[in-house]
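This follows on from our talk about sequence and fold. I would like you to pick a protein and set down its sequence and fold. Go ahead and set the record down below:
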Amino acid sequence: MKIQTNDIEIPVSLKLHQEDKKAYIKLDVHNYENKEILLQDIPEIFFDHYCNDFHNKYTLFVLKRDNLKENQITNIYLKKTPEEKEKRIGFIIPTMAIESQEHDFAENTYFWKFSNAALQILFNTNNNFIFPNTIDISQEKIYLSDLLGGNIAFLVIEKKDFDISEIFSSIIRYGFLLREENEENEENEENEENDNLPKKLNLLNISPDLESVKNQIFNILKIYHLQSNSAFKFFLLYQIIEILIQEIFQNTKNELLESLENQTDVDKIKEILRNYTSEENRLGKLVDTYAVKNGTFKNENIEDLQNACKNYLHAIGLISSCDENIGMFHNYIYKIRNTLFHNFRLHHESNNSKLDNVVNELLKIIPKILFSYKQTTSSKL
């Protein structure tokens, strides 16, 4: 790891003194031979749970989140398949929590073990993280949160070489972004809507049937949270849906060819092609057949999304009343997609908050779709 101060990149490493229970960062600066800065207020309990095998047991990801608080420590549980029970796999730990015992996990031995592993991995000289906060390298002590930034948290997974793309859709819905290795720190204005965070996050694994497109989805989601425009956010989430319905088309090509094989009626051929190539039909197939196992599209699970869509469609004049029946998921999502893609003139900035509600509710549904997606050779379109 490196820090960048006054346009100079300085390699730093971690030095833990087990006997006197103090932690130092060691700076590799030519003019300051063996310069060490004390990490302030690291509790003694941190040293009682020293982790010797962090390289073989843990994977660390650095996250950032607006308005992060020291008590927003979260147990991470993972459900890999609809049939499998959830299992605890790690923690999300704000940097401020490691320099304090004024939080709910102050006596939790697992928390301190994971915290110890996180710091040792982070300060390993083999990684490429650069934190560009300007600090006085002649100072004797510093807070970890001042060194790294108050909006930084550690996602520590108890598995070597864990693939974050497997769970990223579940993480970003809670307001977390992935902090890249060579990236400037940015702290935005506080957002009260982003303040609540459960003590236990139940994350969903992306379906193994989406292995071939997993990285495409991951890259889209990384871009998503860098955007502030609600229309572009919807566009990015819909790109994920398009990836899925393209997968459905690939999965049903043989059915299409079989349906056309002995067909001689031109109108019938046109109808068959329309049914298989129609984006709205394939979107319907997604919700009716490919992603239904965990009850994602039961009315009670998508009622908030449906209401958000009604409010937006009413605001832009496409439905006459918020009580109007707007059909199933694939009907109203496709209607909003067409409006934004082809009739953006209907959108006005006064409706941004309503479109934001649509986007926020859709973001909650996406992880469930990715989790429950199952390749099938079911009935024809």
